[in-house]
Amino acid sequence: MIRLEYKNPDGTSESIDAELRELKGQDKVKGAFLSFLAFIALACVSVFIPVAHFILVPLFFGLALYFAYSAFQHTLEVGEFVFTCPSCNHKITSKKQRVKEALKLHCPNCRHQVYIRAVG
Ligand SMILES: [Zn+2]
What we know:
This protein is an alpha+beta fold and about 120 residues long. It has two domains: about 1-20 and about 75-120, no CATH class; about 25-75. Helix content is about 35%, strand content about 30%. The protein is built from two helices and nine strands. It has helices at about 25-45, 55-70, and strands spanning about 5, 15, 20, 75-80, 80-85, 90-95, 95-100, 100-105, 115-120. Strand 1 (about 5) and strand 2 (about 15) form a beta hairpin. The protein is elongated and about 55 Å long. Zinc ion (ZN) binds near residues 85, 87, 88, 90 and 109.
């Protein structure tokens, strides 16, 4: 079973209660394809912008490839969760997102950076 945990400044680790879903082949391909399509659509729209299309079309095509590859690397879908900052005890809310193996969050109160890893 996969769970999320983070390390406190004193070295102890705590787990986070969040809804997790492991992404399999079809989910990964679907996410990569949707990301690719979004940037290809932007490239198609930018064809009609005079002069700027010489830069925008190759840029959006490159971004489509980059973000599709990046989306394909995601292995875990993490649901929305709330946890307490280990540095200042401020409540931090994380939205639903897809991650590769670690989630990096910043505390809005003290700017402390928290690495949340998937274990298991
Ligand atoms: Zn904090």
